[in-house]
Structure to design on (290 residues):
Protein backbone atom coordinates (compact mmCIF):
# COMPACT_ATOMS: atom_id res chain seq x y z
CA UNK A 1 0.00 0.00 0.00
CA UNK A 2 2.85 2.36 0.88
CA UNK A 3 4.61 1.53 -2.40
CA UNK A 4 1.45 2.41 -4.30
CA UNK A 5 0.95 5.64 -2.33
CA UNK A 6 4.46 7.07 -2.74
CA UNK A 7 4.25 7.71 -6.54
CA UNK A 8 0.87 9.38 -6.09
CA UNK A 9 2.14 11.66 -3.32
CA UNK A 10 5.27 12.49 -5.32
CA UNK A 11 3.26 13.31 -8.45
CA UNK A 12 0.78 15.51 -6.59
CA UNK A 13 3.47 17.30 -4.60
CA UNK A 14 5.51 18.08 -7.73
CA UNK A 15 2.36 19.41 -9.36
CA UNK A 16 1.79 21.45 -6.21
CA UNK A 17 5.15 23.15 -6.65
CA UNK A 18 4.19 24.17 -10.17
CA UNK A 19 0.74 25.27 -8.95
CA UNK A 20 2.51 27.57 -6.48
CA UNK A 21 4.50 29.08 -9.36
CA UNK A 22 1.23 29.82 -11.13
CA UNK A 23 -0.26 31.38 -8.00
CA UNK A 24 2.71 33.73 -7.76
CA UNK A 25 3.01 34.71 -11.42
CA UNK A 26 1.43 37.05 -13.91
CA UNK A 27 0.99 36.30 -17.59
CA UNK A 28 4.01 38.51 -18.25
CA UNK A 29 6.15 36.37 -15.93
CA UNK A 30 5.19 33.13 -17.68
CA UNK A 31 5.95 34.36 -21.20
CA UNK A 32 8.83 36.65 -20.23
CA UNK A 33 11.50 34.71 -22.11
CA UNK A 34 9.32 33.94 -25.12
CA UNK A 35 9.32 37.66 -25.97
CA UNK A 36 13.10 37.96 -25.68
CA UNK A 37 14.79 35.87 -28.39
CA UNK A 38 18.36 36.61 -27.29
CA UNK A 39 17.72 35.57 -23.69
CA UNK A 40 15.75 32.53 -24.86
CA UNK A 41 18.60 31.42 -27.11
CA UNK A 42 21.15 31.73 -24.29
CA UNK A 43 18.85 29.80 -21.95
CA UNK A 44 18.44 26.99 -24.48
CA UNK A 45 22.22 26.75 -24.86
CA UNK A 46 22.76 26.69 -21.10
CA UNK A 47 19.94 24.36 -20.06
CA UNK A 48 19.24 22.16 -23.07
CA UNK A 49 22.50 21.98 -25.07
CA UNK A 50 25.57 22.28 -22.83
CA UNK A 51 24.78 19.62 -20.14
CA UNK A 52 24.00 16.77 -22.61
CA UNK A 53 26.94 17.76 -24.82
CA UNK A 54 29.34 17.77 -21.87
CA UNK A 55 27.92 14.47 -20.62
CA UNK A 56 28.20 12.87 -24.06
CA UNK A 57 31.84 13.87 -24.44
CA UNK A 58 32.67 12.71 -20.92
CA UNK A 59 31.09 9.27 -21.20
CA UNK A 60 32.60 8.77 -24.67
CA UNK A 61 36.18 9.32 -23.49
CA UNK A 62 36.24 8.03 -19.91
CA UNK A 63 36.31 4.41 -18.66
CA UNK A 64 33.30 4.77 -16.38
CA UNK A 65 31.04 1.89 -15.46
CA UNK A 66 28.16 1.61 -17.98
CA UNK A 67 25.47 2.24 -15.34
CA UNK A 68 27.25 5.43 -14.28
CA UNK A 69 27.45 6.60 -17.89
CA UNK A 70 23.75 5.89 -18.30
CA UNK A 71 22.82 7.80 -15.14
CA UNK A 72 24.94 10.79 -16.12
CA UNK A 73 23.46 11.04 -19.58
CA UNK A 74 19.78 10.62 -18.68
CA UNK A 75 20.15 13.26 -15.98
CA UNK A 76 21.92 15.58 -18.42
CA UNK A 77 18.99 15.43 -20.86
CA UNK A 78 16.36 15.94 -18.13
CA UNK A 79 16.06 19.68 -17.35
CA UNK A 80 14.28 21.97 -14.87
CA UNK A 81 12.56 20.11 -12.02
CA UNK A 82 9.59 21.89 -10.38
CA UNK A 83 11.58 22.96 -7.31
CA UNK A 84 13.95 25.09 -9.41
CA UNK A 85 11.93 28.37 -9.46
CA UNK A 86 11.60 28.40 -5.67
CA UNK A 87 15.31 27.72 -5.25
CA UNK A 88 16.11 30.53 -7.68
CA UNK A 89 13.87 33.03 -5.88
CA UNK A 90 15.48 32.18 -2.55
CA UNK A 91 18.85 32.91 -4.18
CA UNK A 92 17.74 36.40 -5.21
CA UNK A 93 16.43 35.79 -8.75
CA UNK A 94 14.13 38.14 -10.64
CA UNK A 95 10.72 36.47 -10.57
CA UNK A 96 9.86 37.17 -14.19
CA UNK A 97 13.16 35.76 -15.43
CA UNK A 98 13.09 32.70 -13.15
CA UNK A 99 9.52 31.81 -14.11
CA UNK A 100 10.12 32.66 -17.76
CA UNK A 101 13.10 30.29 -17.96
CA UNK A 102 11.17 27.52 -16.23
CA UNK A 103 8.13 27.74 -18.52
CA UNK A 104 10.15 28.05 -21.73
CA UNK A 105 12.47 25.14 -20.89
CA UNK A 106 9.56 22.94 -19.77
CA UNK A 107 7.84 23.47 -23.12
CA UNK A 108 11.03 22.85 -25.11
CA UNK A 109 11.53 19.58 -23.21
CA UNK A 110 8.85 17.97 -25.38
CA UNK A 111 11.20 18.40 -28.35
CA UNK A 112 14.64 18.35 -26.74
CA UNK A 113 14.35 15.10 -24.77
CA UNK A 114 13.27 12.85 -27.69
CA UNK A 115 15.86 14.53 -29.94
CA UNK A 116 18.68 14.02 -27.43
CA UNK A 117 17.70 10.39 -26.84
CA UNK A 118 17.55 9.71 -30.58
CA UNK A 119 21.02 11.20 -31.13
CA UNK A 120 22.42 9.27 -28.16
CA UNK A 121 20.89 6.01 -29.40
CA UNK A 122 22.70 6.39 -32.73
CA UNK A 123 25.96 7.53 -31.13
CA UNK A 124 26.28 5.03 -28.28
CA UNK A 125 24.46 2.08 -29.87
CA UNK A 126 22.01 1.67 -27.03
CA UNK A 127 18.33 2.29 -27.57
CA UNK A 128 17.26 5.17 -25.32
CA UNK A 129 13.65 6.22 -25.34
CA UNK A 130 10.78 7.62 -23.37
CA UNK A 131 7.30 7.03 -24.81
CA UNK A 132 5.98 10.29 -26.21
CA UNK A 133 2.73 9.77 -24.32
CA UNK A 134 4.63 9.54 -21.03
CA UNK A 135 6.61 12.69 -21.82
CA UNK A 136 3.47 14.56 -22.83
CA UNK A 137 1.76 13.41 -19.65
CA UNK A 138 4.69 14.70 -17.58
CA UNK A 139 4.72 18.10 -19.29
CA UNK A 140 0.96 18.61 -19.60
CA UNK A 141 -0.16 17.02 -16.34
CA UNK A 142 2.86 17.97 -14.28
CA UNK A 143 3.62 21.45 -15.63
CA UNK A 144 1.11 23.08 -17.98
CA UNK A 145 -2.14 22.18 -16.20
CA UNK A 146 -1.10 23.08 -12.62
CA UNK A 147 0.66 26.20 -13.92
CA UNK A 148 -2.43 27.44 -15.76
CA UNK A 149 -4.64 26.51 -12.83
CA UNK A 150 -2.49 28.54 -10.46
CA UNK A 151 -2.37 31.44 -12.90
CA UNK A 152 -6.19 31.36 -13.23
CA UNK A 153 -6.56 31.56 -9.45
CA UNK A 154 -4.08 34.46 -9.45
CA UNK A 155 -6.06 36.28 -12.11
CA UNK A 156 -9.54 35.86 -10.63
CA UNK A 157 -8.66 35.78 -6.91
CA UNK A 158 -5.35 37.68 -6.62
CA UNK A 159 -5.62 38.31 -2.89
CA UNK A 160 -6.12 34.62 -2.19
CA UNK A 161 -3.26 33.64 -4.50
CA UNK A 162 -0.88 36.11 -2.86
CA UNK A 163 -1.84 34.84 0.57
CA UNK A 164 -1.54 31.09 -0.02
CA UNK A 165 1.18 30.54 -2.63
CA UNK A 166 4.02 30.30 -0.10
CA UNK A 167 2.01 27.85 2.02
CA UNK A 168 1.25 25.72 -1.05
CA UNK A 169 4.92 25.72 -2.01
CA UNK A 170 6.11 24.75 1.49
CA UNK A 171 3.55 21.95 1.88
CA UNK A 172 4.36 20.60 -1.59
CA UNK A 173 8.10 20.73 -0.94
CA UNK A 174 7.64 18.90 2.37
CA UNK A 175 5.61 16.20 0.62
CA UNK A 176 8.27 15.85 -2.07
CA UNK A 177 10.90 15.21 0.59
CA UNK A 178 8.57 12.87 2.48
CA UNK A 179 7.89 10.80 -0.63
CA UNK A 180 11.52 10.84 -1.70
CA UNK A 181 12.92 9.48 1.56
CA UNK A 182 11.59 5.89 1.15
CA UNK A 183 12.87 5.82 -2.42
CA UNK A 184 16.31 6.99 -1.30
CA UNK A 185 16.42 4.47 1.56
CA UNK A 186 15.52 1.62 -0.78
CA UNK A 187 18.27 2.30 -3.32
CA UNK A 188 20.89 3.77 -0.97
CA UNK A 189 23.00 0.57 -0.81
CA UNK A 190 23.24 0.63 -4.61
CA UNK A 191 24.20 4.31 -4.47
CA UNK A 192 27.08 3.55 -2.13
CA UNK A 193 28.31 0.82 -4.46
CA UNK A 194 28.67 3.35 -7.27
CA UNK A 195 30.83 5.79 -5.30
CA UNK A 196 34.39 5.56 -6.52
CA UNK A 197 36.04 4.73 -9.86
CA UNK A 198 35.54 8.30 -11.02
CA UNK A 199 31.73 8.40 -10.73
CA UNK A 200 31.49 11.25 -8.23
CA UNK A 201 34.26 13.26 -9.91
CA UNK A 202 32.58 12.90 -13.31
CA UNK A 203 29.18 13.91 -11.96
CA UNK A 204 30.71 16.90 -10.18
CA UNK A 205 32.50 17.94 -13.38
CA UNK A 206 29.25 17.90 -15.38
CA UNK A 207 27.53 19.92 -12.66
CA UNK A 208 30.34 22.49 -12.63
CA UNK A 209 30.27 22.82 -16.42
CA UNK A 210 26.49 23.34 -16.30
CA UNK A 211 26.84 25.94 -13.53
CA UNK A 212 29.50 27.86 -15.42
CA UNK A 213 27.56 27.65 -18.67
CA UNK A 214 24.46 29.11 -17.05
CA UNK A 215 26.46 31.74 -15.19
CA UNK A 216 28.26 33.10 -18.26
CA UNK A 217 25.20 32.92 -20.51
CA UNK A 218 22.92 34.59 -17.97
CA UNK A 219 23.65 38.10 -19.16
CA UNK A 220 24.90 41.20 -17.34
CA UNK A 221 22.53 41.02 -14.36
CA UNK A 222 24.07 38.84 -11.60
CA UNK A 223 20.59 37.75 -10.53
CA UNK A 224 19.93 36.31 -13.98
CA UNK A 225 23.28 34.57 -13.92
CA UNK A 226 22.33 32.83 -10.69
CA UNK A 227 18.96 31.87 -12.14
CA UNK A 228 20.34 30.34 -15.32
CA UNK A 229 23.17 28.61 -13.46
CA UNK A 230 20.67 26.88 -11.15
CA UNK A 231 18.33 26.01 -14.03
CA UNK A 232 21.26 24.50 -15.93
CA UNK A 233 22.85 22.49 -13.14
CA UNK A 234 19.80 21.12 -11.28
CA UNK A 235 18.33 18.34 -13.39
CA UNK A 236 14.94 16.60 -13.20
CA UNK A 237 15.35 13.24 -11.37
CA UNK A 238 11.72 12.28 -12.02
CA UNK A 239 12.11 12.61 -15.77
CA UNK A 240 15.49 10.88 -15.64
CA UNK A 241 14.01 7.96 -13.69
CA UNK A 242 11.24 7.65 -16.26
CA UNK A 243 13.81 7.42 -19.07
CA UNK A 244 15.89 4.93 -17.07
CA UNK A 245 12.85 2.77 -16.37
CA UNK A 246 11.98 2.67 -20.07
CA UNK A 247 15.53 2.13 -21.34
CA UNK A 248 17.48 0.09 -18.77
CA UNK A 249 16.83 -3.03 -16.75
CA UNK A 250 19.65 -2.48 -14.26
CA UNK A 251 18.24 -0.77 -11.11
CA UNK A 252 21.67 0.68 -10.43
CA UNK A 253 20.97 3.31 -13.09
CA UNK A 254 18.30 4.74 -10.77
CA UNK A 255 20.86 4.71 -7.96
CA UNK A 256 23.25 6.62 -10.20
CA UNK A 257 20.56 9.21 -10.87
CA UNK A 258 20.13 9.76 -7.13
CA UNK A 259 23.89 10.04 -6.70
CA UNK A 260 24.08 12.60 -9.52
CA UNK A 261 21.31 14.63 -7.88
CA UNK A 262 23.14 14.68 -4.54
CA UNK A 263 26.48 15.54 -6.12
CA UNK A 264 24.92 18.38 -8.11
CA UNK A 265 23.26 19.87 -5.04
CA UNK A 266 26.51 19.73 -3.06
CA UNK A 267 28.55 21.24 -5.91
CA UNK A 268 26.11 24.15 -6.11
CA UNK A 269 26.41 25.17 -2.45
CA UNK A 270 29.66 27.21 -2.71
CA UNK A 271 28.46 28.89 -5.90
CA UNK A 272 25.14 29.90 -4.34
CA UNK A 273 26.83 31.33 -1.25
CA UNK A 274 29.19 33.41 -3.37
CA UNK A 275 26.70 34.67 -5.95
CA UNK A 276 23.83 35.27 -3.54
CA UNK A 277 26.02 37.65 -1.57
CA UNK A 278 26.92 39.54 -4.75
CA UNK A 279 23.36 39.63 -6.10
CA UNK A 280 22.04 41.16 -2.89
CA UNK A 281 24.05 44.29 -3.66
CA UNK A 282 22.74 44.75 -7.17
CA UNK A 283 20.61 47.83 -7.78
CA UNK A 284 18.42 47.40 -10.86
CA UNK A 285 19.23 49.92 -13.61
CA UNK A 286 17.98 50.38 -17.19
CA UNK A 287 21.14 48.64 -18.38
CA UNK A 288 20.53 45.44 -16.32
CA UNK A 289 16.76 45.30 -16.21
CA UNK A 290 16.33 43.79 -19.64
Amino acid sequence: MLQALIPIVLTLSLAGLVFAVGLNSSRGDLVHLLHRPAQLTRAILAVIVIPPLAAGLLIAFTPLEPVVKAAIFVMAVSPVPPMVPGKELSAGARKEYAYGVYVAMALITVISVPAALAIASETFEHKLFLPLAALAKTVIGGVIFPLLLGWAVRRYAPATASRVWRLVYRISMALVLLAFVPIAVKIWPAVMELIGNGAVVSMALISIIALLGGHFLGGPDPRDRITLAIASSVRHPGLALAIAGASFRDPRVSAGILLFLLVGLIVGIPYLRWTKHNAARVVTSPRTAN
About this structure: Residues 2-173+181-279 form a domain with the Na+/H+ antiporter like fold fold (CATH 1.20.1530.20). Confidence is low (pLDDT under 50) at residues 283-290. The chain has twelve helices and no strands. The first helix runs from residue 2 to 23.
